[in-house]
Design a protein that fits this description.
Radius of gyration: 28 Å
Strand order of the largest sheet: 24-25-27-28-29-37-36-32-31
Helix content: under 10%
Protein name: PhoX family phosphatase
Number of strands: 46
CATH architecture of the largest domain: 6 Propeller
Organism: Novosphingobium beihaiensis
Number of helices: 8
CATH topology of the largest domain: Neuraminidase
Shape: globular
Structural class: mainly beta
Largest sheet: 9 strands, antiparallel
Number of domains: 2
CATH class of the largest domain: Mainly Beta
Strand content: 25-35%
Length: about 850
């Protein structure tokens, strides 16, 4: 509560002037009246509820009485959107009079759902654009039919961040603000089917085709009704879809993995590692009042691994460059790997993104002589150059395709006789129907092939579907796909969800972004006939694109040919559900990719980040977040405006250096290496009017001071700052100036640290229930620098207190709830 509403009008003034957390309505009511605090329980009460008889002490300042009844609805008060409001009525009956009934009703203002308990009524303050009054009436009657009533007014202000910023932390727990609680959900190795044993967590476990995989990354909660059907509004039951990006092999095996230099990998080790990749689907259930658990034997549970059959769709399907020993027609494949960020379609499917897949493949030295110059150029551009492949799976002494598919060396008479083109089957966006465990995922080739980090899907009825995608490597690009078909709202509820994906994701235009120095940008079409040949360079010949399939399979080469803007490791994309603006995290870069003379307006910094060890890393080690607004707010626009929303920085090293700490960060909101990005759902106050933006980090620069983190922000809009000229400095002391466009500086009211994770983790996936009262967050690879003999983290066991020194860490999802039942972050 901010105060008692004055009787003669109200002035809001500047709402963004107090950097401290606003005192809650409940806390002030408790202090003023010393009443029992009533928390929100359950749901489903109507806005007029007849309550059981009860009597508590009456208030003095709002009484309306007759000869036998005195009724109060409590004082007028003020709060902000998303906060829990408790209305407390009181009834005093005269001598020889019995109260027969009492009731609460909403009289005016935006509709809210009242939940009643005794003489109290509770609701969550709705989203409002300006300060708005809500009035409520409380009435009672006695056995003689006499009645009395009173009213109270609650003034609701626009949403504000409602928690005290979490400090830097090096603890081995997930630290959240006061008033919030953490529940550990699905963890590495947890069973996903009946009869699968509990995870021993000592390296002896197998059968990861029926267990939660390793390195959980992007996630999304898909609602289920009580009857087990799709229900987008459900906040009590749902399917958690989570990516499994990579491995901490030192903890997966009893004593770590077998050293490949001493011989081939054992088949059981390789199988475990392969199956621990991919995607999992697991059912989550609220037992009441947001007491979350998962259903280990749910019929919806599913693992999608690097061996799961998949269909290849779109313009590249059937290309000769996709033919393998598994698919002689080039329109089918097996599996998905290194799944990092994701996207959600407008028809309730999950878009999982294959990121750093290239390193998993082996190519022997002899293979080079068997390839054309153009093939070698494409393989090098994507990094398919390893002589062993990640984890050396192809060294297993077996002819089983599970292991041999990772060897891309030409060995057969034709592409149908070996796996020379198996790498071309990876690097795609893969669509999954979480509600149908029997459905085959579909690789959507129209969205291009690269190191896909995310696929934010922007849906606006009557406009084409837009999909915004980062390519997660330093010096790579931002892409946009635009469907040929305009979105039809009827498709949102279709039962054949993958068929809807066929309609919107198989036919359209792929673009790559060019950011201009004047704050504008343009989308360059990656369309056959409009992409020039790529000139010869070094030992590589000119690359001549054969057709549209070639452009989509070798998207990076086509983007090079068009002169797209290389970015500082473009990762997650997210869209503001109100303004439609698109945000992109640029995690970081180094001096080789972003030297002093190699900056540009969209990637403007080169500076040194000192470490506690005394070393200094140069380039853009802390990263930044760029945002753009399409001209005409149309997904089909070919031009846009942009600025840099936030610059990461270490506020201890650079508390006031406007050339590095451009956004004016402090130790309560500084961050480094932004990675995950997410706007609160627009189905609750945190995602309406001025939505909360959540920023996750994957940091190696600030981790000498704090573990990786999650921040909450109330962002403005493109153009809310202005032009800036930065003075950059290299390791030799040389300087150079770079012009750019920076958003408004951060304040304690617009950006706060919400969570700090356990030791050596990355904060990864994020989503919330539709009601905004549970936030799910992924914690990836805690203790990644340790080993089986000496783990450097014991999380999540350490979350509940001390853990044995031998306990191995596990990636896991946590559910975060607000103790008063309110909206997360507000």
């Amino acid at each position: 509560m901010t105060g008692i509403l004055p009787p003669n009008g109200y002035t809001d003034g500047d709402v963004d002037t107090n950097p401290t957390t606003q005192i809650s309505l409940e806390a002030l009511a408790e202090a003023r009246y010393s009443r029992r605090q009533a928390l929100l329980r359950g749901a489903g009460a109507t806005t007029m509820a007849v309550l059981g008889t009860g009597v508590i002490a009456a208030c003095d300042d709002k009484d309306i009485s007759n000869s036998t009844l005195v009724v109060s609805a409590g004082d007028n008060a003020a709060t902000s959107a998303g906060r829990v409001v408790v209305l407390t009525g009181s009834v005093t009956a005269g001598d020889n009079t019995t109260v027969s009934s009492s009731a609460w009703a909403q009289n005016s203002g935006p509709d809210v759902e009242l939940t009643v308990d005794g003489l109290t009524a509770t609701f969550i303050a709705p989203a409002v654009e300006t300060a708005t009054d809500l009035t409520f009436g409380f009435a009672a009657s006695n056995a003689d039919g006499e009645g009395a009533s009173a009213t109270t007014t609650i003034r609701v202000s626009p949403a504000a961040l409602g928690f005290t910023a979490v400090a830097h932390s090096l603890e081995d727990i997930a630290v959240v603000p006061a008033g919030y609680s953490v529940t550990v959900m699905t963890r590495l190795g947890d069973p996903l089917a009946a009869g699968v044993s509990a995870y021993a967590n000592d390296g002896t476990d197998g059968n990861f085709a029926q267990r939660i995989g390793d390195h959980g990354d992007a996630l999304h909660f898909f609602g289920l009704s009580a009857a087990g059907s799709r229900d987008d509004s459900s906040s009590a039951r749902g399917l958690m879809v989570q990516n499994h990006e990579n491995l901490s092999t030192q903890y997966l095996h009893p004593n770590g993995p077998t050293n490949v230099s001493t011989g081939p990998r054992p088949a059981d080790e390789a199988k475990k590692e392969i199956e621990a990749h991919g995607v999992s689907v697991s059912e989550y259930l609220d037992g009441g009042d947001r007491t979350w658990s998962y259903v280990a034997d749910s019929s919806f549970n599913r693992r999608i691994t690097p061996m799961t059959p998949m269909t290849i769709r779109g313009p590249a399907a059937g290309s000769a460059m996709l033919v393998t020993a598994y698919s002689s027609t080039g329109d089918a494949g097996r599996g998905t790997i290194n799944n990092c960020a994701n996207g959600i379609s407008g028809w309730a499917t999950n878009l999982t993104c294959e990121e750093n897949w290239a390193g998993y493949f082996r190519r022997d030295a002899a293979d080079d002589a068997l390839r054309t110059g153009s093939e070698l150029r494409a393989l090098a551009r994507y990094g398919v150059t390893s002589r062993t492949g990640n984890y050396a799976w192809s060294t297993v002494a077996s002819t089983d395709a599970m292991y041999q598919k990772w060897n891309a060396t030409i060995s057969g008479a034709s592409a149908a006789d070996d796996y020379r083109y198996e790498p071309n089957q990876y690097g795609w966006v893969v669509e999954i129907d979480p509600y149908n465990p029997a459905s085959a995922p579909r690789k959507r080739t129209a969205l291009g092939r690269c190191g896909h980090e995310g696929a934010f899907t922007r849906i606006a009825e009557g406009q084409p579907v837009g999909v915004y995608m980062g390519d997660d490597s330093r010096g790579e690009y931002l892409y946009k796909y635009v469907s040929n078909a305009a979105f039809d709202a009827a498709d949102a509820d279709a039962s054949d969800r993958l068929a809807v994906g066929d309609k919107y994701l198989d036919n359209g235009t792929l673009y790559v972004a060019r950011f201009n120095e004047d704050g504008t940008g343009e989308w360059l079409p990656l369309t056959f006939g409009q992409v020039p040949n790529l000139p010869a360079t070094g030992t590589y010949p000119e690359y001549v694109f054969a057709d549209q399939a070639d452009i989509l399979i070798n998207t990076r080469l086509a983007a090079d040919a068009l002169g797209a803007t290389p970015m500082d490791r473009p990762e997650w994309t997210a869209g503001n559900p109100v303004t439609g603006e698109i945000y992109l995290t640029l995690t970081n870069s180094n001096a080789s990719k972003r030297p002093l003379n190699g900056t540009d307006a969209a990637n403007p910094r080169h500076y040194g980040d000192p470490k506690l060890s005394g070393s200094t890393s140069y380039g853009n080690p802390n990263g930044h977040i760029i945002r753009l607004r399409e001209d005409g707010d149309s997904t089909a626009a070919t031009t846009f405006a942009w600025d840099i929303y936030l610059f990461g920085a270490d506020a201890t090293d650079y508390p006031a250096d406007a050339n590095v700490n451009v956004s004016g960060l402090t130790t309560s909101n500084d961050f480094s290496s932004p990675d995950g990005l997410y706007f609160s759902r627009d189905t609750n106050p945190a995602g309406e009017i001025n939505p909360v933006l959540w920023i996750e980090t994957d940091d190696g620069a600030l981790t000498d001071r704090t573990n990786c983190m999650l921040l909450a922000a109330l962002p403005g809009h493109v153009g809310d700052g202005g032009a800036k000229t930065l003075t950059n400095r290299d390791s030799n002391g040389a300087t150079a100036q770079q012009a750019t466009f920076a958003g408004a500086a951060a304040t304690a009211a617009s950006l706060r640290r919400f969570l700090v994770g356990p030791v050596q983790c990355e904060i990864t996936g994020i989503d919330m229930t539709p009601d905004g009262r549970t936030l799910f967050v992924g914690i990836q690879h805690p203790g990644e620098r340790g080993n089986a003999a000496a783990p450097t983290s014991h999380w999540p066991d350490s979350q509940g207190g001390s853990a044995a020194a031998t306990v191995r860490p596990r990636s896991a999802i946590i559910a975060i709830t607000k103790d008063d039942g309110g909206i997360i972050g507000l």
